[in-house]
Write a structure and sequence with these properties.
alpha/beta, binds nicotinamide-adenine-dinucleotide
Length: about 240
């Protein structure tokens, strides 16, 4: 994958940062998208110190126009990506009594609307390039219900649905589309806000999950597609066919 391009959302910290760093180590050029522009600059400088090429793009992925501008910037700089990892998400637990429509829309838009805009933007370029790989970060919330997740949970269910449709539509064009989940408890800012103390006892550095994402970047329509891939802490993964 040396010299090829990647787009990683939520790359300022947590799992997205670990995935972007693994891609830099593979020699990829990486567009780093995140709302935390303050952290992204430091991350890009760190990757430059590794000899890498990374472009920090500050973006609010809950906003359609901002999301479109960010992916257009990435495409203009690096050309068609080999892989797009839509990893950014927001989880704020609220009951149905508490949540407002704008709060619901914000979480849904970061997870699902951004997945659509990013995928739509690279779809034709990937077809013209002869293939590519698109990955959405899912969760147990992508297939089970959880209390007080009335926005995050349907957002994650939604991206699994979009993934299945695009895996089918992408196959003749050699485009792989998959969902991925952390197959181990990970030490990230999101986990710090939502894990119990017992869960924090066993959490691991998200860098240990990165090999599954290196594997996913190499997929195309003839490889692994239409699957939910659980990235394990031992550097391996399990994949379930959802088609
Ligand atoms: N942490 C877990 O245990 C866990 C479990 C299952 C699934 N996941 C999924 O894995 C992915 C990564 O999780 P994480 O734990 O690293 O999360 P995190 O909250 O630590 O990091 C998410 C990143 O997304 C960015 N982000 C949030 N809102 C944004 C916006 N509006 N625009 C642009 N960027 C925005 C944040 O700034 C942050 O850098 C998420 O999709 C999450 O749903 C995480």
């Amino acid at each position: 994958m040396n010299g090829q391009a990647a787009v990683v959302t939520g790359a300022a910290q947590g799992l997205g940062y670990a995935i972007a760093k693994a891609y830099i180590a593979e020699g990829m050029k990486v567009a780093l998208l995140d709302i935390r522009g303050d952290i992204l600059g430091r991350v890009a400088a760190e990757f430059a110190d590794m000899g890498g090429d990374a472009l920090p793009i500050a973006v609010d992925l809950s906003d359609a126009n901002d999301t479109q501008a960010a992916i257009d910037t990435a495409l203009a700089r690096y050309g068609t990506p080999r892989v797009v990892i839509h990893n950014a998400a927001l989880l704020i637990t609220r009951s149905m009594l508490e949540i407002t429509l704008p709060q619901w829309q914000k979480e849904i838009n970061i997870i699902l609307q951004a997945a659509f805009i990013l995928s739509k933007s690279v779809w034709k370029p990937m077809i013209e390039a002869g293939g590519g790989s698109i990955v959405y970060l899912s969760s147990g919330s992508g297939y089970k219900g959880f209390i007080e997740e009335v926005a995050y949970n349907p957002g994650k269910h939604g991206i699994e649905g979009l993934m299945k449709c695009l895996a089918l539509e992408g196959a003749p064009f050699n485009i792989a589309v998959n969902a991925a989940t952390p197959g181990a408890p990970i030490n990230t800012p999101m986990s710090a806000s939502n894990y119990t103390e017992a869960q924090k006892m066993t959490w691991v550095d998200p860098a240990r999950l990165a090999p599954a994402f290196v594997m996913l970047a190499k997929q195309d329509g003839a490889g692994l597609t239409g699957h939910r891939v659980a990235a394990r802490a031992n550097g391996k993964w399990d994949a379930i066919d959802l088609l």
